[in-house]
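User: Predict C2H2-type domain-containing protein's structure from this.
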Amino acid sequence: MKNPHIIPQTWPFSCMTCQHVWESVYEAWHADDGHGGQVVTWRYKGTASMPPWIEPSCPACSSLSVKTLPPRARRPADDDPAGIPGRGHRGARPDR
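Assistant:
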């Protein structure tokens, strides 16, 4: 892969057995495949991994009955301190 474009994604998971809920951050490496197409590879904690939706297991009970939810979109406002209207606080209304 030449010049990969790396996109961190936060994936939420929910265990159908013990009801444990958690999030994990994966890196999606997008690159040219050398034949005019695109290839995506995945990394978890710096190590090559399967995509997040392939057989996740619960860290609490080891169950394979896990629901994978769509990745959470990251917006610049998510990194702003909460409680400051108009700066990442959910439900804040802009001044009119």
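The mean pLDDT is 80.
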